[in-house]
């Protein structure tokens, strides 16, 4: 039974959720480092909550010992939808390449 427990624990890593005090201090540091200021306290509280959720997501992913690590950056106070609207493009990359563009396999 002990062997099964150890194997189970190794197969499913556990992460510790970030407590609010740690998250609040990290958010203050984040604001200073990235020059973030918000229009009012409500917006600041909203961004702090999003930051906290993202910090927990970062910890959860990093606890899985994957081949990569996530970290805090200037976008950690954005939701996934806000980040996508800000940074992801739906533009067709071949648009505007003209007749001289040859798609792979057509050479």
TrEMBL record:
Keyword Hydrolase: yes
GO molecular function: peptidase activity
InterPro entries from the UniProt entry: Papain-like_cys_pep_sf, Prot_inhib_I29
UniProt xrefs under Gene3D superfamilies: 1.10.287.2250
Origin: domain of life: Eukaryota
Biological process according to GO: proteolysis
Annotated ranges, domain Cathepsin propeptide inhibitor: 27-83
Alphabetic keyword roster: Hydrolase, Protease, Signal
Extent of the signal sequence: 1-17
The name this protein goes by in its record: Cysteine protease, putative
């Amino acid at each position: 039974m002990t062997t099964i427990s150890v194997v189970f624990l190794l197969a499913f890593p556990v992460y510790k959720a970030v407590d609010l005090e740690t998250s609040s201090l990290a958010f203050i540091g984040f604001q200073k480092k990235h020059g973030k200021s918000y229009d009012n306290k409500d917006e600041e509280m909203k961004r702090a909550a999003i930051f906290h959720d993202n910090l927990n997501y970062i910890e959860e992913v990093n606890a899985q010992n994957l081949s990569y690590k996530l970290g805090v950056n200037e976008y950690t106070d954005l939701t996934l939808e806000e980040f996508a609207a800000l940074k992801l493009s739906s533009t067709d990359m071949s648009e505007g390449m003209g007749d001289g563009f040859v798609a792979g396999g057509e050479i």
